[in-house]
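Q: Give me a protein?
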Amino acid sequence: MSSRAPLPQFSSSVKLKYVKLGYQYLVNNFLTFLLVPVMAAVTLEVVRRGPEELLALWRAMQFDLIQILCSLFVIVFAGTVYFMSRPRPVYLVDYACFKPPAVCRVPYSTFMEHTRLINSDEKSVQFQMRILERSGLGEETCLPPANHYIPPRPTMEASRAEAQLVIFSAVDDLLRKTGLKPKDIDILIVNCSLFSPTPSLSAMVINKYKLRSNVRSFNLSGMGCSAGLISVDLARDLLQAHGSSNALVISTEIITPNFYSGHQRSMMLPNCLFRMGAAAILLSNRRREARRAKYRLVHVVRTHKGADDRAYRCVYEEEDGEGHSGISLSKDLMAIAGDALKVNITTIGPLVLPLSEQILFFLTLVGRKVLNAKWKPYIPDFKQAFEHFCIHAGGRAVIDELQKNLELSAEHVEASRMTLHRFGNTSSSSLWYELNYIESKGRMRRGDRVWQIGFGSGFKCNSAVWKCLRTVNPPVDGPWADCIHRYPVNIPEIIKL
């Protein structure tokens, strides 16, 4: 009988995660590993030949003046074509988020008291209370002044007052932070889904800040909570067409005119989830802005499922049987959002994922098609492509589903959960509150990559990828300045009211 110890079990003696890491490192650096031996061989050959032999080789080539000039012309021409045809870089110089005043705060008790005074149907009141208990919202979210009246006063005047408050406050902060003068704004894009007055919100901004008469202005409405990234995409295209320009993007949702006073349950959810918010973002294609810019835009990927009737109607503005207008949310919303997300990440995956993840995904897909359809599908590890995730804070269920499907950690979705808790669903501006949370925590480092994911009516799923250009110091002001030390907080599954 042999005295040698038995071989250990492979699965227990080898950390398989390190095997995977080694595979990823090998594949992702394949070109480096391929070029190193070639470069080493060339270096050895140069050393072996010696300077005299190399000088003799150079003289033997016998270049004349015409050859040299022709070669220089080809190099200069090719370089000019390359630099003229490549896309202009788009920089995010800075941004600012509106911080609601404390007088607009709606703690749970205030919200439920007003709900009972406004709504005489006890079943509707109890339904909204259950929604609020499970919503993930905290005690400091804010509603506009008109919604604090009993009953609320959704007038045009009050709606304009809210728009002026949130938009002008955010723009004022941005101008102060960047030192930008209004006359230096070349492009203006405002997105607000449900409030679309005449003159438009973009005209309101032009009038307030006396922008130039040739400013290129756009007002996007009806495009839902993902309209902020649509505005970024539009700004990117405009900055490609117009050199040396600054673009001001404003994302908001005006709550005042959209209070639902009926009893249809599918239309009560927006009352419980949506809160005040706005963000102003300065984008530029000017090279000199690269020195002070925070981020560079890398990709924008947009997915639209509006051709499908279920997706088109899953978030739908309409009147109920009693004539009360509101936003109806379909029970199929999460399933439709999942389908849109699947298409979006399938599109963005090849653009951002390392080669190792793409190979694993492709091999698993082929194996499921050819060998065994019951194989578990391989979910690409997007944590290798991004350091930070900003998931639209539309509700607790949205964040839960994306965390599960993308296999993200609690820290990866912390910014989204805490933004929902502190500010509620601020529609298209929520992504910027989340980015500001990450910065306020001191987590943003040079070279970090950020993935913003937004969902909106239609139905749409949009993504933007940013690369951090410099380590961002925690801001001394902004929406999180007076409360970031308290976060993250524990958010129970149910808060009994």
Observations:
- The mean pLDDT is 88.
- The radius of gyration is 28 Å.
- The longest strand covers residues 295-304.
